[in-house]
Protein 1
Amino acid sequence: MSGETALALHDVRVTRGCGDGRLELVHGIDLAVAAGAVCGVVGETGAGKTLTMRAVLGLLPRGLESSGAIELGGQRVDLATPAIARRALLGRELALVPQNPAAMLDPVVRVGDQLVEGVVRRRMSTPAEARSRALELLSQVGFRDPERIVRLHPHQLSGGMSQRVGIAMALVPRPRVLIVDEPTSALDAHLRIEILSLIRTIARAERTAVVLVSHDLGLVARFCDTVAVLYAGTIVESGPAAAVIERPRHPYAVALRAVAPRLTATRRARLTTIPGVPPTPDSIGAGCPFAPRCPRVEPLCRELRPALAGPPQQPAACHVVNRAARSRAPRSTGEAHAGRR
């Protein structure tokens, strides 16, 4: 993989309400994803993962507004512009595989017609080219007889088959970025691994950047190149997947790792949880949003929200860990000489 950035988020925010009743739900997300790479966006339910991606796609629910900007293939897009003006990107440069792909399929239209409809209607491809591309993708996602699949109606597909069709449909227009939202929540463990393996393989082959939204740290560890850990609408740690998973810095990332289910666990193994509950947007004070649940909390944590800081390759938003990192950092030669005088 090269270092070419396919998608960059700059200070992405989501707010609800207006005037004095305005409430920020997502707080200044910065994120970059390289072409052909898989970036995991992980956190508990309500962390702001899906909301951030919906802001990027211009698909926020009514009553919510976005701000900030994204860069997509060198083009900067202001998220404060009306969503309808940005939706031309959806299905061209950006594509979405939702949590339940079966719900986006028209029950009375054959699978093949739905796969090619979007690109043909937008004149991105001829019907013959679109059909050839659809058959190729169906084969790539594991269908041995794609000619039979295109003749089926959605009700004739199993859950795993619907997931595969959803991935193929998103990839037909050759998007620069694929956003995959909790893609395997309804599948068993075997299908989950199979589907994510397919997504990663196709991403490499097509040079498509993938943003994998998930609450499952185990899956993220296995399939992602980089990770951004979200809590209460903000990134609390980011970096290479191996580093964040194996050596997490932020106490919340540490807690997520501790409660992640393990494939080697016995059937009777007891699942652990993080004490406390995530805050609601209107209950977050001036300090760190994780402070009420954090085992390392200090008075400063309740008074001042920490910035994302520390090692550039793995920054964390935590006063305690960053202070400890600074104290361990070697002093410069000049500082060492000054200390000996």
Protein 2
Amino acid sequence: MKAIARLVALLAAPLVTAAALAQAYPTRPVKIVVPYGAGGPADIYARFLGSKLGEALGQSFVIEDRPGGGAVIGTDAVAKSAPDGYTLLMMSNTHTVNETLFSKKPYSLMRDLAPITGVNYSDLVMVIHPSVPANNLKEFIALAKAKPHELNYASSGPGTPYHMAGELFKAIAGVDIVHVPYKGSDGARTGILGGQVQMMLDAITTMAPNVRAGKVRAIGTTGTKRSTVLPDVPTLAEAGLPGYESGIWLGLMAPAGTPHAILARLNVEVNKVVNAPEVRELWARQGAVPMGMSIEQFDKFLREEIVKWARVVQISGAKVD
């Protein structure tokens, strides 16, 4: 009987250790790396999430923006960090696109990083500078066809949702518009507001205020139904581009090898934040929809997204500039 008791104790020890590890975590500040520029959705929601997690867990969650290389630079830094739960990655559909778009990367998403959970999703809005002589989608497409390779559109870099949304638009509309990649969404936004570029597809959460202020002209949104944030703006499909749909989602990952107990603790805490009624209400006003998932659901979601965007990259003919 003593031998059996000892065996049971030995088998239970790892479970007790894991539980204790998760219960104690975190014991020092946690860094969330955002592989994009300041001012974009990933940066904004990482700061929001970090603030809420800090309140819940009693430690600071510090946001570090590390843009560049189509999100590859910041992501690689996280992939090479210690797998202890103290360095996390705020990621997006850029990462699932990059698995196909970049033939060579210093990391592989599903091999070198571990899923935690999805954060939120939002539609994009296609906007043009007021100087562009077009008032709706059909007029803009006609202008682009009349002036091939003369109009351009901004993105926050290769592989980002704004880049892929633009390439998908070009493919479906049958137009030749030049891609102008910036180092971050803030730069791309400045480009369209200043008239250096004619068009951009940007997250509703960050571009809607500029639409309301008349700084840009909204041509259409990218969801399957009109956005409650810009209800007077038709979807692109409704405006004359059947089948067009795109968007931006955000998620949280950690270096591969991070103890599952810590991943599970983060999953629970993040889902508490994104599913809180006051957060859902706030994000709804901004045009964002919570995406809280289990680790397993998010893992499945990521793998499906990689396959989906591989097809879009192939269809659109998108290339790394």
Protein 3
Amino acid sequence: MFKALRRKASPTVVEQRNIHLSGKEISYTLKRSGYRRSISLRIDDRGLTVNAPLRASEKWLHSVLQDKAEWVVEKLDGWQAKKAPPIFWAEGARIPFRGEEFILTLTPKVRGVVPQLHGETLHVPAGMEADAVHIEKAVTEWYREEALRVFRECVEHFAPLLQVLPQDIKLTSARTQWGNCSSGGVVRLNWQLVKMPLHLIDYVVVHELAHLVEMNHSAAFWRVVESACPEYKECRAELKSYGVAE
């Protein structure tokens, strides 16, 4: 009798490295895998990632990086320019919401009272002496509640236009996706999307609803998207600048 041979999982080795490219010191993540046969470069909100074969030589790595030096520096500078500044969770912080910014102000803590927008100010009842952790928690909870409300309004508007009926709308915190749609009709949308301009929120909602018609990214799928969002190409390009996939 012949015994089935169990294939060993290919190891992945991850390193953090630095290199000088076009006169700048660049930090990058090197991922070596036994499955790979070529070297590829990826730049996103986390910086430069180099994927390489497990036994790729240092000479080969150096050559690829130097050949792509100008492209790497240009793309990294572009990401840095687009990256949203960190929020300092304190009185006077600027809070992004639906493409606009609101000023955070602390109010006395009252049981059952949630953050509320008044004009250009977000009133957060976390207590006048609240620390950053409690302020961030209160605002995040508010974001999630508002996200679900805004997303449901968008779905109610676009679903009839696309002649679809999603089974449920849920929130996700995925780092790599703005949304997804299951074959069972459940649409999941990243709650952080509620910080984006409304036209981008609309586009992501339309994108996911379109999957209820075409569960792929074929030409037919994009025609469905275009029927409800004619400017989808511009929205798609703009969305990519925020560092998360569709």
